[in-house]
Design brief:
With 497 residues, the protein is an alpha/beta fold. The chain has 17 helices and 16 strands. It is elongated. One of its GO terms (molecular function) is NAD binding.
């Protein structure tokens, strides 16, 4: 398009106004557009208006990512007075960055492309079984308490958070299933389905960012031929970043045939579970050490057994923590603050991380046998990876025979087999087991763990997911992505977490 074509749009050369253009379109503090030897500055609203006029008058506009919309300065739209001619307007020093520029982590360049200008909104789909998670994101973005690039886009109607229906996906082939209990029906589906209207399908076709539960993202992205309906196989091809809603990422491990690096980044909902899991562990340790359950038995017998319920000093109790990541450190800090002796197991130990972990553990060791042998309680918070699956065997637990610790598992159930736990309890290697995670979830009704007198079963409730917490992680990461910064809680495909 040249300047002559634009002249056809002009009704009044004395004002520079296009037919139908109001003074609101003449705001010149916006996006800088390159001209034919001269420069004009216009807002995206002005450009949108011009594009609509072009479409109404059936002007053909061929664009690609390199094309720029050029407007001569004398058509640019700055009115000096009622009858005066337009004057050149200096470029604004605060040139806006458009959503897709930032999402792609690239600069805006010397001028905004027509493609960018025609993009009304950056639409991010939300797919989750967690009620209210999309609304929690919208509320955070609408808040002016701590504005960032994402909230500014949202508040200027350039960003939309779109709630989409939850799909039905095929169950993974792996026997270990860590998706939330609410996500698993009594009859596991075998035929994938997704009730999407054409607009929703278009959103997923265009999406580069996806906010989704891991147990849904993994099958849809790693095994799409099996989990996307035939007519939807074209969806999700452009996804570059997946923000999860859980702390764990083991759903992605259930697809061994997937490429080692599938071409998209996964970030987990880190930081939302440490406090809750630490409280859970602390509660059970206190209940057992202070003999709350024994007190209940005495109550039922109507016995005032004051001297039978004496407890030991917490300084005499050693608690071993398997895994000193974010969650393990918080568990250690909580217990250590109450006077317990804490020894932590970490695969790689050096002087630097020993110092960093001092507030969480009195000692840190890379020798798991040492930790097991010296502990009165063994707390597992390890994730599920190739290195941790069935790490605890009957032979490994033999070193527990002296202290007979209580085993508390809030990490992942596949760190130890059910039979191994039962045998260790029956042989006296462990005195009790508090289990919140299991090899298979939900725990099968026929499992011996339900009825074992030394086992306490809780249904994966050590840490609940609250929408506002997950939304906080997502909004922080979205702001970082828009600003070209490194994402937090990013999954490393090479080590599986």
């Amino acid at each position: 398009m040249d300047a002559t074509e634009l002249t056809e749009l002009e009704d009044d050369t004395s004002t520079g106004k296009v037919d139908g253009m109001t003074d609101s379109h003449l705001n010149t503090t916006g996006i800088q557009l390159g001209g034919f030897g001269e420069v004009a500055t216009m807002t995206a609203e002005t450009v949108d208006f011009l594009i609509r006029v072009l479409e109404d008058r059936k002007q053909e506009l061929l664009v690609n990512d390199e094309d720029k919309l050029h407007v001569k300065a004398n058509y640019a739209v700055a009115e000096e007075d009622e009858g005066g001619a337009s004057e050149e307007t200096a470029p604004s020093p605060h040139r806006q960055r458009l959503p897709f520029d930032s999402v792609n982590n690239s600069g805006a360049g010397d001028g905004a492309t027509v493609t960018e200008l025609m993009t009304q909104k950056l639409q991010i789909p939300v797919v989750s079984i967690i009620p209210g998670i999309g609304e929690a994101v919208r509320q955070q973005l609408a808040s002016t308490a701590a504005p960032c690039s994402a909230s500014k886009l949202y508040q200027s109607s350039k960003l939309e958070i779109v709630d989409l229906p939850v799909p039905v996906v095929c169950p993974p082939n792996a026997s270990n299933n860590h998706q939330p209990q609410d996500a698993i029906g009594k009859d596991e589906p075998t035929t994938p389905s997704w009730k999407l209207d054409p607009i929703q399908q278009q959103i997923l076709e265009d999406a580069e960012v996806l906010f989704i539960d891991a147990h849904l993202a993994a099958p849809l992205l790693l095994d799409p031929k099996r989990n996307l309906p035939f007519e939807m196989q074209h969806l999700l091809k452009k996804v570059k970043w997946v923000q999860g809603t859980y702390a764990g990422v083991d759903s992605y491990h259930q697809f061994p045939e997937a490429p080692a690096d599938p071409g998209f980044t996964v970030t987990r909902a880190g930081g939302i579970m440490p406090t809750a899991l630490a409280q859970f562990v602390f509660g059970w340790v206190i209940a057992l050490e202070r003999k709350f359950f024994d007190a209940q038995v005495y109550q039922e017998k109507r016995v005032f057994g004051r001297w039978d319920l004496k407890y030991r000093s917490f300084r005499q109790v050693t608690i071993g923590i398997l895994g000193l990541g974010e969650i393990g450190q918080e568990v250690g800090r909580t217990l250590k603050a109450s006077g317990f002796q804490v020894i932590g197991f970490k695969r790689k130990v050096n002087d630097e991380n020993r110092k960093a972990l001092a507030s969480s553990a009195d000692r840190v060791s890379s020798d798991m046998h040492e930790v097991l042998e010296q502990s009165d309680y063994v707390v597992n918070v390890l994730p599920s990876t190739d290195a941790t699956r069935y790490l605890l065997t009957e032979n490994t637990l033999e070193v527990c025979s002296k202290k007979k610790p209580v085993f508390i598992n809030v990490g992942r159930g596949d760190v130890v087999a059910v039979d191994t736990i039962v045998n260790a309890l029956d042989k006296g290697l462990l005195s009790k087991a508090v289990l919140d995670v299991f090899e298979q979830e939900p725990l099968p009704k026929e499992s011996p763990l339900w009825s074992h007198p030394k086992v306490i079963v809780t249904p994966h409730i050590s840490g609940s997911v609250f929408p506002e917490d997950v939304a906080d992680v997502f909004v922080k990461n979205l702001c970082r992505r828009l600003e070209g910064q490194q994402l937090i809680y990013q999954m490393d495909w090479s080590n599986g977490y």
